[in-house]
């Protein structure tokens, strides 16, 4: 239980650091390239969560090729990453992850490849955090981390003494992070009708969980928690 609480605290702490911290949205060549690599990465995640081995392989190959452009910076990336001693190692780690995921897809292990690819998101987030760079993806990642606390550990939490209240507190953190998605979205996303529609669905999924918790309805809570992933996944696939 302590581990679950620590994960929730870490998620909320990241959100606070993003809100208070840091540099504005990036305008440097390294982050711009990371953002360009993020779009095919999201597609690779999406395709490895499907059933087509060929489509997953194509998406992964494109994601890897885009990421490999970062290797051109070598050990001398542009500011603000020029003081990051771990930059080259992080770039290499992502390349290794892609290599592993491609092997898993070739073996027909799409689900395992999807799990392997999650590490890419973590490495990119760590690279930005080390260098005081914030992009909208970081807010998406913070929401995702807290969402997983509830989805993966929610039933265990409910089984604890005062578990309903503990889960209510965790859902409060999720609600805050959902609000940050709206507040921190860049202007072009706020003006995008598809984005606002998908974000509305995310907020509704959180509201449904909050309502179930307020009603102290265990079955409704479990059902609502199970419906958090769908709206987020659609938002992430297009705009994460």
Structure description:
The chain has eleven helices and no strands. Mean pLDDT is 88; it is low at 1-25. The radius of gyration is 19 Å and the shape is globular. The protein folds into two domains: 2-21 and 135-239, Up-down Bundle (Four Helix Bundle (Hemerythrin (Met), subunit A)); 29-130, Four Helix Bundle (Hemerythrin (Met), subunit A), CATH 1.20.120. Helix content is 77%, strand content 0%. The longest helix is centred in the middle third of the chain and has 23 residues, at 136-158. It is an all-alpha fold.
Supply database-style keywords.
disordered N terminus; mainly alpha; 240 residues; Four Helix Bundle (Hemerythrin (Met), subunit A)
The fraction of residues in strands falls at under 5%
Radius of gyration: 19 Å
Helix content: over 70%
CATH architecture group name of the largest domain: Up-down Bundle
The span between the termini is: 30 Å
DSSP strand count:
0
Tell me the count of domains: 2
**What is the ordering of alpha helices and beta strands?**
HHHHHHHHHHH
User: Mean pLDDT across all residues, rounded?
Assistant: 88
Structure classification:
mainly alpha
User: How many strands, which pairing sense, and closed or not: the largest β-sheet?
Assistant: none
List the total number of helices.
11
Show unreliable segments: 1-25
- CATH topology assignment of the largest domain: Four Helix Bundle (Hemerythrin (Met), subunit A)
Main CATH class of the largest domain? Mainly Alpha
User: How would you describe the shape?
Assistant: globular
């Amino acid at each position: 239980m302590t581990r679950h609480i620590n994960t929730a605290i870490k998620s909320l702490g990241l959100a606070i650091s993003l809100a208070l911290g840091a540099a504005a949205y990036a305008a440097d060549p390294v982050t711009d390239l990371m953002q360009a690599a993020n779009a095919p990465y999201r597609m690779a995640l999406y395709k490895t969560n499907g059933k087509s081995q060929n489509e997953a392989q194509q998406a992964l190959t494109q994601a890897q090729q885009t990421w490999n452009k970062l290797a051109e910076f070598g050990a001398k990336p542009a500011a603000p990453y020029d003081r990051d001693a771990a930059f080259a190692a992080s770039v290499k780690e992502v390349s290794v992850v892609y290599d592993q995921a491609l092997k898993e897809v070739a073996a027909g292990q799409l689900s395992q490849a999807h799990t392997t690819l999650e590490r890419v998101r973590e490495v990119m987030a760590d690279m930005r955090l080390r260098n005081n760079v914030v992009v909208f993806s970081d807010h998406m990642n913070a929401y995702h981390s807290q969402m997983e606390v509830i989805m993966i550990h929610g039933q265990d939490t409910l089984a604890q003494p005062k578990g309903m209240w503990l889960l209510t507190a965790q859902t409060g953190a999720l609600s805050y992070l959902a609000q940050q998605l709206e507040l921190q979205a860049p202007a072009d996303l706020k003006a995008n009708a598809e984005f606002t529609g998908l974000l509305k669905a995310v907020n509704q999924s959180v509201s449904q969980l909050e309502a179930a918790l307020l009603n102290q309805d265990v079955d409704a809570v479990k059902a609502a928690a199970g419906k958090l992933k769908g709206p987020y996944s659609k938002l992430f696939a297009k705009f994460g």
